[in-house]
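Input record (one chain):
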Amino acid sequence: MSTASDDESQTQYVEATFQRDTAYLADRITADPGAEWPVEPGRYRLIVSRACPWANRSIIVRRLLGLEDVLSMGVTGPTHDWRSWQFDLDPGGVDPVLRIERLRDAFLRRDPGYSRGITVPAIVDIPTGAVVTNDFKVITLDLSTQWHAYHRDGAPDLYPEPLRDEIDTVAEVIYRDVNNGVYQAGFAGTQAAYDDAYGRLFARLDWLSDRLATRRYLVGDTITEADVRLFTTLARFDAVYHGHFKCNRSKLSELPVLWAYARDLFQTPGFGDTTDFVHIKAHYYRVHRDINPTGIVPDGPDLSGWSAPHHRAELGGRPFGDGTPPGPVADAERVPADHNPALASVRAA
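The corresponding structure, as predicted from the sequence alone:
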């Protein structure tokens, strides 16, 4: 059985162009009466890696909505081998709830013949130890819409019904050209494939800069799912994608509108406080040996700029709408201070 994977999904080269395996376990956990997988506090465990942008989205949404007490979270280490992500951050290298060493074990509990990508985020049914879903796009939407009864008081509406069509449209072009576009550039097998991905990426970043020049958030006047999806790629751009994936027309810090937008989100509770730059760099530079054979992790970039004033509030907008920010991060889920030193300045502000 093949479990070869990159940081988020099994990949392959088709005509020299990076293709992401999106054949996920697509079951959903819903609030529907009689659901096969019903929403139940304490029944499921969200498995993430802080290195992975797709998993980082689910961490952000879970925190913004205040679901920590009803949906526990297991965090893998930042690197993996062919057998999958491993719980090497936990005592004894074993997840304390699922009692497994590797995420692969939960996928095999679901399907002993499972041969697709072993990816994060994944939601595991604790009683059976089996993965329910690893469909990252649907996971965050369902946390917003299906787990609503368990949202904290003051939780924001990240997927407001009147704006869903626009959110979906914006999120899809961001996924195609930016979220996945950096991978298509980084893993391109020919110059032509790289040039195409590189061109689409920066054309879309320019489009996003124009869109955000006069509005604080991507859709409406509050933070939505679309902002969460863009942020995790922007957070990794200068640290990884600019150099490692050859996305080097401009650094994020050289794109004034997007850089201010990213800092605004970073300084918003739920975003920067879930970002682990040490895990991010460790993963990409140590796992992708075809791109970085030595496995050397660069010391830079300087992270202090993330805490600089952004002035985006001058555009108006209300980050949480009629809601409120989430409270402090639980001690057990806090990103170590030396993994994100920019947070110290933000917390002090």
